[in-house]
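Propose amino acids for all 80 sites.
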């Protein structure tokens, strides 16, 4: 899931409590994840914009209940 960091990988955990993604550095903030768009200043470089958007789209397609990020203490929680 490259985007903020090239070569990045996210972790998906499915258990009885739901689907959780450890998104780490797939994006810089929860707001970027929700908007599916990285701030240009948060992308490794401009050439990664399309790649980062595609990564966020793939993560959203997994329909996670919770997503955790490295640079933001805000936790994404899917609306019930």
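Proposal:
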């Amino acid at each position: 899931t490259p985007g903020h960091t090239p070569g990045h990988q996210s972790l998906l955990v499915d258990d009885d409590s739901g689907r959780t993604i450890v998104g780490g550095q797939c994006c810089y903030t929860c707001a970027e994840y929700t908007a599916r768009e990285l701030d240009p200043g948060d992308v490794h470089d401009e050439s990664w914009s399309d790649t980062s958007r595609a990564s966020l789209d793939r993560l959203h397609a997994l329909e996670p209940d919770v997503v955790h990020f490295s640079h933001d203490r805000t936790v994404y929680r899917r609306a019930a």
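DSSP finds two helices and four strands in the chain. The two ends are 26 Å apart (CA to CA).
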